Amino acid sequence: MAEKVLMKGNEAIAEAAILAGCRHYFGYPITPQTEVAAYMAKRMPKIGGTFLQAESEIAAINMVYGVSATGKRVMTSSSSPGISLKGEGLSYLAGADLPALVVNVQRGGPGLGGIQPSQSDYFQATKGGAHGDFHMIVLAPASVQEMAELTVKGFDLADKYRMTAMILADGTMGQMMEPVSLDFAEGEKVEKPWATNGTKMARPHNVVNSLFLKPEQLEKTNFERFERYETIKQNEVMYEEYMMEDAEICVVAFGIASRVSKNAINEARAKGIKVGLIRPITLWPFPEKAIAAAAEKVKKFISVELSMGQMIEDVRLAVNGKAPVTLCNRTGGMIPEPEQVLAAITEAAK
Amino acid sequence: MNGKRITIFSGHYGSGKTNIALTYALAERAKGKRVAIADIDIVNPYFRTKDSEAMLAEHGIRLICSEYANTNIDIPALPQDIYAIVDDRSLTCILDVGGDERGALALGRIAPAIREEDDYDMIFVANRYRPLTATVEGAMEVLHEIEAACGLRFTAIVNNSNLGAETTAEDVLSSVAFGEALSKASGLPLVATAVTEPLARALSGRMAGLYPIRLQKHL
After folding, report:
1. Domains identified in chain B, total number
2. Which residue among A184, A302, A306, B78 sits deepest, i.e. has the most Cβ atoms within 10 Å of its Cβ?
3. For A94, phi and psi rounded to 5 degrees?
4. Per residue in B7-66, pLDDT tens?
5. What's the pLDDT score for residue A187?
6. Which structural domain range is residue B19 located in?
7. Which chain A residues are closer than 8 Å to B127 by Cβ?
8. Annotated domain spans of chain A
9. Does A32 sit behind a cis peptide bond, omega within 30 degrees of 0 on the bond before it?
10. pLDDT on residue B14
């Protein structure tokens, strides 16, 4: 499909997953991500894939565990409250070192909250998401095109490192429509000698499990897993810099907040304010080196978020006290206007 | 789109029904008619006719819309005054029916009365740049699913092929053949190609049947 098509972000995720070789989708409807499931329901039967509307989010994530154990590419999607329900399964996937793609099209919380866009699951996504020592790779798209591209990337990273990759989008990204080119290469193929896909009487049984009978063994496995995380931190960080060359103020924002911020930065530049943007594309691993490098020359940082301020903690860690970091935010399903971000930039420039 | 008492716009979600319905409602109102626009989309959570509430009120167009639209009450509710569409025959009604066959199911509630009165058009809005309606076969599938769900037959097609803000004149021109092929396959007349007002100016004289639409503001 070389020609561009007009897609919702949710549809772009679904089609990109199919292009990446995913033939198994399990989910449960919840606004604002339901189009992922609706699209899969239409497409999967036509291409010999499996779409199953599970009886709950918990069932869906455990079906993901089962298919992943056989070595097949598999995904589920939900929105904030549904991701909380999947928490146990996310931890089990991590404990069994199983690759999976999990999509969170965030809405306002806590609790049932609302259906409007939010980024307030940042802590949940980047700090593990459930019990135990683990991380997920967290990818934050800022356009419908990136919804598609990061989905393919997410499958590749999940397979490469045998872990969950999460697309951390928000309601705006899921619902907005933009032209998309789906003309990208199919994802990388990774051998999975650990998969429980039949011994054919030619090898010992593979075991997929997250239970360790001896604490020494669990400790060793956790140490090994965190060594793998260090490799990911070295090799897989992604971010975009925008007008940072001469910037004296640095806005840090991801997803929809980065788009609002770019508008504000353009207006501030027109007024002569030297401001730029660092947009994390991977939220875990976080682009801490890029922000630390910026902290050597930038006078002030502003974290723009659709939450009460969650990423700001990682920004502060990276800045390491070298410059003040302030928050510019809306929450509960509200989106900051460019004027609000511009006012924060103008204040910082005083 | 020829001034029937009830004009229904339906199609795949994201086909552009709402913008066309709003434009058509304004045109009917400009003729001095009593006009109501009914948003009976029970699927789409975000982009609703209610976004244009103030503009409609300003033009004296009645909005029939679930009181839960654009709130956090995430239930597929129908507006309580949906029966005004069929009970008040002095109203010119424009219906915005959302979201594929699941959305069209809601229309089934008043479809018997609409059939009985028999003064309606039902327009299939098609966008060939949407992945599930990119081919005539795909569009026909959606068309038949909607008809089966609501119990009404389409009477015409509007080609609304677009790539959002990036749509070029060439994108529109190259979609005409799709609109004509869909018309042939369905046996329904292709009554218009909907484009934004700037594109209508750019395409003036280069193709027939242009229907300039004004875009709803949202977010």
Report:
1. 1
2. A306
3. -65, -45
4. 999 998 888 888 999 999 999 999 999 999 998 877 776 777 888 999 999 999 999 998
5. 67
6. 6-213
7. 6
8. 5-235, 239-349
9. yes
10. 80
Q: Are strands A24-27 and A50-53 parallel, antiparallel or unpaired?
A: parallel
Q: Which residues contact A89 (CB under 8 A, 6 or more apart)?
A: A58, A61, A62, A64, A65
H/E element, A300: strand A300-305
- pLDDT band at residue B98 using 50, 70 and 90 as cut-offs: confident
Determine, yes or no, domain membership for B1.
no
CA distance B101 to B67: 23
Range A239-349 has CATH code 3.40.50.920: yes
CA A142 to each of CA A9, A95, A241, A280, B126: distance values in angstroms, whole numbers, following the listed order: 10, 30, 13, 10, 28
pLDDT tens column, A283-324:
999 999 999 999 999 999 999 999 999 999 999 999 999 999
Touching check for A332 and chain B: CB below 8 Å?
A: no
Asked if residue B158 lies in contact with residue B174, where contact means CB atoms within 8 angstroms, the answer is no
Compute the CA torsion angle A194, A196, A197, A200 (nearest 10 deg). Answer: 90
C-alpha–C-alpha distance, residues B180 and B189, integer Å? 9
| In-domain check, residue B219 | no
Q: Which helix (H) or strand (E) holds A177?
A: strand A177-180
Q: pLDDT confidence of A2, banded at 50, 70, 90?
A: low
**Phi, psi (deg, nearest 5) at residue A193:** -65, -15
Q: What span, in angstroms and rounded, lies between the C-alpha atoms of A102 and A22?
A: 12
Chain B partners within 8 Å of A46 (Cβ): none
Q: What is the ipTM of this complex?
A: 0.88
Question: What's A5-235's CATH class?
Answer: alpha beta
For the entire predicted model, the pTM comes to 0.93
Element (H, E) at A15: helix A9-19
Position A263: which residue type? N
Contact A171 B129 (CB under 8 A): no
Chain A nearest CA to B44, separation (Å): 9
Phi/psi at B146 (5° precision): -65, -45
Of B47, B74, B132, the CB nearest to A115: B74
CB pairs under 8 A between A and B: 50
A312-348 burial: b if 16+ Cβ within 10 Å, else e: bebbbebbeeebebebbbbbbbebbebebbbebbbeb
Mean pLDDT of A142-157: 97
Sign of CA dihedral B20, B22, B25, B27: negative
- Tokens for B76, please give them: 């597929």
Q: Which helix (H) or strand (E) holds A349?
A: helix A338-349
Which chain A residues contact residue B162 at CB under 8 A?
6
Contact between A6 and B163 using a beta-carbon 8 Å cutoff = yes
CATH code of the domain in which B147 resides: 3.40.50.300
Inter-chain contact B46–A32, Cβ cutoff 8 Å?
yes
Beta-strand pair A137-139/A282-284: antiparallel
